[in-house]
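Incident log, entry 3
Record: Triosephosphate isomerase (351 residues)
Problem: checksum mismatch between cached and fresh output.
Input:
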Amino acid sequence: MWAPSSLASSQLSRLGARDLRGAAAVAPAAPAPQQLRLGCSRRRAQRVVAMAGSGKFFVGGNWKCVSARSASSALHAWGISLLDDSFVLKNHCSFVYPASSLWELALLFLNGTKDFVSKLVSELNAATLEPDVDVVVAPPFIYIDQVKNSLTDRIEVSAQNVWVGKGGAYTGEISAEQLVDIGCKWVILGHSERRNIIGETDEFIAKKAAYALSQNVKVIACIGELLEEREAGKTFEVCFKQMKAYADSITNWADVVIAYEPVWAIGTGKVASPEQAQEVHAAVRDWLKTNVSPEVASSVRIIYGGSVNAGNCADLAKKEDIDGFLVGGASLKGPDFTTIINSVTSKKVAA
Ligand SMILES: O=C(CO)COP(=O)(O)O
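Fresh output:
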């Protein structure tokens, strides 16, 4: 199990004053089984909680890859029974899911149609976004052109994957050169779905990152532990190993955003608590300080992903080392994604 001793005192002592300020502002939360509370006394809240990096929050919407089957046929195929305000999954009768989860599920199935993308883009174009936030959306490859041609320039476009090196005869792959050609400025790499379903290794992902950066494609570099790794107290070990692979390949960190996405929180509705996320973000920043440079540690943005939604983003955003979010399901709803983007305002706290 996750235990307080998992954050070594040597790691804590390496954290600078700026690092500790966010931790100290953490109110002692209700005990959570896998939560580690940093052993600092509570201090007076800062007027504005400082943020790492360029000072700009970063929010990405990962629209993932889904089929265009109709929601109803998909639900039927999945053995989902509808109730009045909830639904049950076949073979999971002990769980009754709220209707809002059904809506999220339906959205996932409907995403993947041009009409859906068009509606989402319209919502984002109409939204009022806080100025000090970098916003990126990552549609499936086949919709990138549609999105590029219809989305406001205020929001940049990312791919969800890229080929590992220079383009060539690699059937089914998309090269960094092609991303540049269609005006796609970012790519998400190291996502847990690519690590754990497709089987991409740390080294392969890091090589992709280095090549993308060499072609001026910016990288959202994902890391994160499985549930069993967290429960075995290996969260830092896993994240640091993934970080090391990136660090061995990346020389230019200015165009990198790190996304901490605990696998157990992705698409599960089990969001990491603000304290759990802050703890890992601070540790990753400390790792960067020791293993890359203090400059990179203090400038790189570390964003959180895993069941972020309009309701939980404000509390997460308050944490000093949470510099933004990578959002899956909730990024498919324009108003919710807008709320998440604008949660940067919650970094400002009462004195
Ligand atoms: O994987 C994610 C973003 O890359 C997170 O997905 P959810 O927000 O749906 O949990």
